[in-house]
Specification:
mainly alpha; 2 domains; coiled coil; cytoskeleton
């Protein structure tokens, strides 16, 4: 018990002094280390702040540069889109012109074919393969060729419009992405350390597999622009071709149409001249028929007028042949009577001209009938060419579209 209540050992003043000095030295050392850490921390904080600020400024600058780059490409895409849209609208107008021109060819072709069919109704010698028919066949061939050419050009135009729209779609999709990228980079450029909606994002620096390189990004837009340029150039070339085709085909059809019309007018004039000549010949035949009929009537009357003298002469000869005996003398009276009978008989026999005249009259009648039939044929031809065909052709007009 006494040992438990024993007082703790006492240190000597030297130990106390040493302990105090050691405590002071330790404290000073700890303080120095702390001050160094504080100084290092402040330096580090200052360095990190400057680095962070520099990096953030650099990132902001890069975002701004990227924004300008996207804006540049967006402007390029906008310009190309405007061009391809305009070019497509022009092609659509040309497509409408081609369709109208193609439609306008149908009526001239139908008219040419109807003219050919109508002219098959010509009769007799007038059913001839004349210049009109040759030019009508050529006109039908020209129009059919024009229709085929316009049809091919129309299909080519539709395909070019499709390609233009495909290029336009690619540009629009690229522009849509560029617009969204601009909005996102605008948002990113506006963010500051004090923006309310900034937050921590888990795995923010993780690289996704759908990232593309800047070179691929540029190539993508370049490809879209090049495709648009290619289709626009093709479209420009096609436009020039279409304009030339529309003008040339319209001129070809109009030229051939005028050639056919000239051939029709010439043919109608020829037929009218032939008809007029036939009518003149018919009038001559009618006059000649009347003269021949008058001649036949005169011949018949002349023959009938010789019957009395013949009867008288023959009666006298018969009576004098009954003279008796020596009175039956071949005297001058008897001789003259015989000669009279012979003379009159001979003159009557010379009237076989009547039969020839009647034959000629029949020939004139046949010729008159033939001329009348031929005139009827010419009238039929004139009706077909001048009334049916030419009037039908007057209603047709080949417009330029």
């Amino acid at each position: 018990m006494a040992r438990l209540l024993q007082a703790p050992p006492k240190f000597c003043p030297a130990a106390w002094d040493i302990a105090n000095k050691m405590q002071c030295a330790s404290t000073e050392s700890q303080k120095s280390r702390s001050e160094r850490v504080i100084a290092e921390s402040r330096r580090l904080l200052d360095e990190v702040e400057k680095t962070t600020q520099k990096t953030q400024n650099d990132v902001s600058k890069k975002i701004a540069q990227r924004w300008e780059e996207i804006k540049f490409w967006k402007q390029e895409l906008d310009y190309k889109l405007e061009q391809i849209v305009h070019e497509t609208e022009v092609l659509l107008t040309l497509k409408t012109r081609l369709e109208k021109s193609l439609e306008s060819c149908k009526e001239p072709l139908i008219v040419a074919q109807k003219c050919l069919l109508n002219r098959q109704r010509r009769a007799g010698i007038d059913l001839v393969c004349d210049e009109v028919e040759q030019e009508l066949v050529k006109e039908a061939e020209v129009i059919q060729g024009v229709i085929a050419l316009l049809g091919r050009t129309l299909e080519q135009t539709k395909e070019q419009i499709r390609l233009n729209r495909s290029a336009k779609y690619n540009l629009e999709m690229d522009l849509k992405d560029k617009f969204r990228a601009l909005m996102i980079d605008d948002y990113c450029a506006a963010l500051t350390n004090h923006t309310p909606d900034i937050r921590y994002v888990q795995d923010a620096v993780k690289m996704e597999g759908n990232f593309v390189s800047p070179e691929d990004w540029i190539d993508f837009s370049n490809t879209n622009i090049e495709k648009a340029d290619k289709q626009r150039n093709n479209s420009l070339a096609l436009r020039a071709l279409i304009d030339g085709i529309l003008v040339q085909t319209a001129n070809d059809v109009r030229k051939q149409r005028e050639t056919v019309n000239v051939a029709f007018r010439n043919r109608v004039k020829e037929v009218k001249d032939a008809k007029h000549k036939l009518e003149t010949l018919l009038a001559m035949v009618v006059d000649e028929t009347a003269s021949q009929e008058e001649n036949i009537a005169g011949l018949k009357k002349a023959i009938a007028g010789k019957e009395g003298p013949v009867k008288v002469a023959q009666t006298r000869l018969e009576a004098r042949s009954r003279r008796p005996g020596v009175e039956l003398c071949y005297d001058a009276a008897q001789h003259r009577l015989r000669r009279e009978v012979q003379e009159i008989t001979k003159n009557i026999q010379r009237q076989d001209t009547l039969a020839q005249a009647e034959t000629e009259l029949k020939g004139l009648s046949r010729q008159q009938l033939s001329l009348e039939e031929e005139i009827q044929i010419k009238e039929n031809t004139l009706y077909i060419d001048e009334v049916l065909c030419m009037q039908m052709r007057e209603s047709v007009c080949m417009n330029s579209f």
